[in-house]
Fold these 3 entries.
Entry 1:
Amino acid sequence: MIDPAAPGFWPGLFQVLLVGTGETLYMVGVAVLFTVLVGLPLGVLLVGTERGGLFEAPFGYRPLGRVINRVLEFIVNLGRSVPFIILMVALIPFTRLVVGTFIGSTAAIVPLAVVAIPFFARMVEIAIKEVDSGLIEAAESLGATRWQIVAKVLVPESLSTLILGLSTTVTSIINFSAMVGTVAGGGLGQVAIQYGYQRYSTIHMVAVIILIFIIVMMLQGLATWLARRFSHRTRPARSRVAVPPAI
Amino acid sequence: MISVKHVFKTFGSGAAATTALDDVSLEVARGEIFGVIGQSGAGKSTLIRVINLLERPSSGTVTVDGEELTRLSPDQLRLARRKIGMVFQHFNLLAGRTAQGNVELGLEIVGVSGAERRRRSLEILDLVGLADKAGAYPAELSGGQKQRVGIARALAGNPKILLSDEATSALDPETTRSILDLVKTINVQLGLTVLLITHEMDVVKRVCDSAAMLENGRILEQGSIVSLLSTPGSRLVHELFPLGEIAPHPGNTVIEITFSGGSADRPVIAQLARTYGLDVSILGAAVETIGGNQAGRTRLELPGTPLANAAPIADLRGQGLLVEIVGDGAVVEGSRA
């Protein structure tokens, strides 16, 4: 039990929250980077390798497209269905292989990215499926290559929806980042567990909740603003991305 | 310029298979505006997509500007498509790009860089009459303006052919006319061959040099408007000049005269009445300006049986008019003298 009246309590709290916030932003930020780098192409491929898609027959070989589609579907479904708390523990050997340790914020990036990539890939899939097939046809009639269609039509035209989808993804990464705090992953989650739960400091607990709430609010505000900025439709962009289930 | 030979297109397989194109052959001459008319479900959309192979025919060949597209590899086909611009019923513009940005898309794909791309896109926008809207997003443009952007984008790669997929069907009559006039201007100024599909006869009347009628995936007839006008029993001509139901009096003869070119200017009916002393009644008439020439059909009722009217009918045919004797709604006889 920590006594709020004890000397040094408030500076200590401030210090702990500062470090915790820094760690959270670090692991979430890097995880988001990997999520976009891997999830975006993954989502594009998920849509593209479907029947009638752009990459239906890679190298002119139709069965290859079907196999790729099945494999990606399997991976994404697997990644989405394993509860994070189990995934996190199950990934420990892999994390150790990649980072060298499974403790700390850097190590936490691995399970965060692994859980977020399939999630974001689904978001990308939804966003890209919303692009009017007539636009693809128009680009094809102009003689566009498949990559030109992805880069000049599919991604730019779904940008608003992609941004909103990314925002939802980042929110759940923040959510999961608190969970890695329970296994010494650092960040605000660890502050809440160590001080708020194990040492009964309600002030720590409340402070962490407020901080995470502020981060999520700012993120959502930024995403909404960006989505509107990139949407040139007359109606304001509205979020058509499904809210993720709570875990 | 465009030659389609024995094209079949079947969707699906087995019992669920539907034939969209059934042995379609089509010849479009260089520099003409060719209209394919048909009702929805006739296979028009499939036909136009077969020309640039957005839809690959199940069998048959498509040759454009001497190049047999159906034999090309995917990469060669992409290059060949740059010679074929296409405009769409619903415009298909990128919502995230301005009018100029949409035109530049066509140039980017072809690989035109930076300053040249900007210069050329503005030049084309000027050609379609949208120079002042270069910075507007599609959401800020009217339907007609969007279609002008669509046409500008199609022209970006300097194509030789323009395919128009119901380009005016989503537009009001006045805008339709202005877009058709633009198509005609492009056709004349740039020497572009145009193949358009439509379900509106007005489109054919206004701009087409030639036309084909598509029904259930088959071409019923095709040819230049002028030659169709002199084809007895042409469905296309009947639909271009609708005369309504026939209600003859018993014992009288009903004839339909199709005239075009010079014969349109002569006082045919007055002459007929004077020369043969006939009480001619006009049951219906439809006259249009097609390709700058007056053309039309008139339905007349002459007293007496067809046999009794043989002399005046022969006289009309002698004047180069297409005369059809119609009975109870069906064409009984029809030939040109």
Entry 2:
Amino acid sequence: MLHILRQIAKCGIKTEPPPPPADEMVTVARLQKKILRVLGRALTIRQIDAGSCNGCELEIHALANPYYNIEGLGIRFVASPRHADLLLVTGPVSKHMAIALKRTYDATPDPKLVVAVGDCGCSGGIFGESYASLGRVSNVIPVDVAIPGCPPAPVALLQGILAAVSVAAPAAELDAESAAALRTEPTMGSGVARLPEGAAELAPDAPAGEPPARVGDPP
Amino acid sequence: MNVSPLGVSSATLACPVPAQRCPVNSGQLLTACRLAWEQGGQLAALWASDERDRERGFCVHVLLRDRDGLTLLDHTLPDGGARYPDLSTIFPVANRMQRAAFDLVGTESDTDDPRPWIWQAAWPIDQFPLRRDFAASPKWEPGEEDYPFVRVSGDGVHEIAVGPVHAGTIEPGHFRFQVVGEKVLRLEERLSFAHKGIEKRFETLSIADGSRLAARISGDSAVAYGWAYAQAVEAIAGLELSQRATWLRALCLERERVANHLGDLGYLGNDGGFAFGLSQFSRLKEDVLRLNRRVFGHRLLMDVIVPGGVTHDIAPESTAEMRTQCASLDREIRLLRDIYDDHAGLQDRFRNCGRVTNELATKLGLCGFAARASGVADDLNRDGDVAARVAVRFDEALESLRLIDVILDALPQGDIIAALPRFREFKPALGCVEGWRGPVWFALESGPTDAIRRCHPHDPSWQNWPVIEHAVIGNIVPDFPLINKSFNLSYSGHDL
């Protein structure tokens, strides 16, 4: 125990001051005032990898290290979209993840924010659009802030996340309806809209379909 | 392996390690695989290609590795209706690769397992993306398949479905647990959610541009992939790399290994309920990434390795900085290792958790550090549990620090990059690099006008994912994250 305490004391506090929000990353400023009123400075984030190479995930992990200490800013990563204020989405959105991403978005309570992460999340990146990739996140769900970079460094991620909740852009004055009209419209087909809600995080209570097979049944 | 008893001809294959290429018929394919297995060889990769434009139907490529080097068996199927022998009876790991080859190229094996593996209803099931006449339609919308998971029934048995959106910041995949109480009876993985058409994308890029895509197949292994791709390109070109460029690549690879092991050691502590470990190791990892940024211009070292050499040379002051960092990391890692080893609660979680015996590891072809933790290709008696994988990660992180020091001491002088020639002919080559997770393979065939005719990257996760299904049996559900993290496999590198 003593050597653990000694190590903690020796390391001291490594946390650096947070960067200022980056206004230029805001793609659509909507509902800012209302969201700020609801959230204050406590923000919960649900991260979704919609098909990335995992480079962005590594940098998102880094936000939790003592240098960036994102929890010290009142921002927390949560396990369910139902507990989230903001979806942090990396891409490109693979076709295989499109339905899960849409369901996760639907399962997130309003008001909600979406931040697209990385060159792939912003534009499809090197993978682009193909038989297997839908490209940028805003092709599937509305996006408020886009953070470029391959992958974006943790400081850029922080700037983008802070921009999503703290930018007082003129559009923030708009009412909910006109702000909604400003959003990037998803271009994915209508098939998605008919999908049942929820089930994104597939909790243990997810509905079971057919009756169970016996042990040893062939696949 | 010696293929002469099979009566097949063999030709040398361009590759940095000894490699041969043999055309085989179906009988010879099966015999060669059996022979390789009996002599301790393993299946490294299996993929297929569409050769109809060269009047050769389809070709199934089977890459075997043993102590002598690599053997690539090329088996030609005259048309889409022909089948090839099911190799999963010899190498169980072939099962998913064969299913993937069918989903992407339409080559069928004699298997009794017709389930898709990469296909998830995003394109019509009778269309094969890696065929040359494949044309994607904008009308195809994401769909949902009905995957036949195996269910277990009995008193109190229930099912837990997890994913593809996970509770943590990890890649997408689906796990189906059959449990009684909290004990796992069976786990079935369903991957390919991160499938984004990488192999097809390669065919639209020039050989030089392919390097950028290669570094983004699995972001945590950008160096290993970048290097393996560059190896294949340089083998095709017959390009001799300068000593300095090779050593700088090795430096990057070891720094990537250290960074990944540090990150995972932190998360392993955290998953064992020891948050102190995460904050300590994530601090050390950040130090490594920041120095990467200063020395090589990129935190994850993406695009530092390009065909022909490396993009960044190191200045004397960077050398000094890396040396200082190595010394301080070595000291801190040893200290933290003592803390992990002495922590009763942590050891209680690590020991006997997610065990993979040496026998199982060999049978399933487990590779990389996870195989070494099960005592494969190693005289040490390792337990194959989470504790063993943690121990191997500590050992390898420290060894990488030693290697970095050695590299910095003896770094040869010279150029760091050479010009690539133009590529004018069809020529196949292989690249392979032992990344932090295990061996990363690249099979590349050039075409005229600097084009990529076919490119197949192969991640060690193909070999190791099926092993996790076995490692969790009999463990409790809450130990799954710990077991999973102890392997930390790539989804993107596997799904392509």
Entry 3:
Amino acid sequence: MKKMLAEKTVEVNEEGYLLQFAQWDKDIANAIAVEEKVELIDRHWKAIEWIQNEYKNDSPLSIRGIKNSGTLNIKEFYELFPGGPLKKASKIAGIPKPKSCI
Amino acid sequence: MKNLIILGAGTSGTMMANHLVSKLPKNEWKITIVDQYKTHYYQPGFLFLPFDIYKEKDVKKEGKKFIPKGVTYIQKRIEKIVPEENKVQLENETLSYDVLIVATGSKIAPQETEGMKGPKWHKNIFDFYTYEGALALRNKLRSWKGGKLVIHITEMPIKCPVAPLEFAFLADTYFRKKGMRDNVEITYVTPLSGAFTKPKATAALHYLLEEKGIKELIDFNIDRVDYENNKIIDYGDIAVDYDLLVTTPTNMGDDLIKRSGMGDALNFIPTNKATLQSLANENIFVIGDASNIPASKAGSVAHFEAEVLTENIQNYIKGKELKEEFDGHANCFIETGNGKALLIDFNYEQEPVRGNFPFPVVGPLSLLKESKLNHLGKLAFRWIYWNMLIKGISIPFVTAKMTKKGKYITN
């Protein structure tokens, strides 16, 4: 479905995750963050950049990945994206949410 | 004479031996398979052991019986793969290969979580992904008086991703039949955003949890098990009490992969998801749970991979281009308890949807919908596994490439 974010039309799924990573930009990230009640500061952008790089390398976002990243620690990650950090961080970073087969 | 070596004689390795023995010219190629263990387990059967639905004999056979004549079977521990030299070191001999197929699978790693594999392991903390774990859990359940049963997933990816959910459904039926369901509180704890994570499956199946009174706790990323106080605690400091914890520990590729320096953080080998060739070495191919491809770690996936890989091994040795054919196809029966099951059929692109299988309209199996016939299909699958699947015999009407026929696809 189509959705207006930061005055741009983007394709999202039923849960509001971007369907095309190419449509992501920082304004759109800010708009999603507002909906998720997260105010993006420098540390968020570093996390988002790391998450997007992992995604480009086909490496699914995981707590273990964050632990081993050297960029983030888990406690901080929880503070940055409170209540479902993997889900929220994925959504704001414009990548699909971590999922199982059904 | 050239050498093709297969490492691991589980589901994937055994299938590849059976496929390739008739495909490679015998006067040019010697095929060798290496596995240190004698027993071949029917791993999907581990789900049924704890509930006394299957007995020990239903899930194990001697592995040698399934290795075809014409393939050399070596029962030794594998020490190391040395890709730069095209060599595999075994405990007291070294083999050289022209083509290597790695099929060493994945296994649980409870030691990765603090407190999990401590003094309470297999006392009131169990896995059901190993033969030993499933049997220990069966013995516990036989005399358990009830309390808080917590069914838990540590982190993704895991082998057979729906098995923990099936465990929850079967536990509900098991305790009902024993007349003690009221004494058992079942909670399903997952690091994901739900027991079901895909929109169509959530819409079609969430009623199962409500109907069976199974509580769902989502977004739970375990930090440690407090085995003294019977709690699991996550990184957000949420604690869940249990009397009986049935956990799915972290899954990792074999230590061999780590020793050989070939894996990612979880010892899975970086692999091309369409050709199954390893990314680092062109004469090394990876099949089944050992790879890092984003497909489910399941026998049906390995079965479809085997068909594609058999072609690509032939292409590779003839110097032809590899086919980018593997589409992530998986086809799984999911037990829902009360003698019913679901069937799902999906791939990298297509999420599980409603429909009929394998034929449009007539089925006879229904997709993403509970039925008694699907349950019979799941039970029949054990026979198919031992008699067709690992022997490399194609299953009629079910192709490696997923078909969209018979599926109700709306977008």
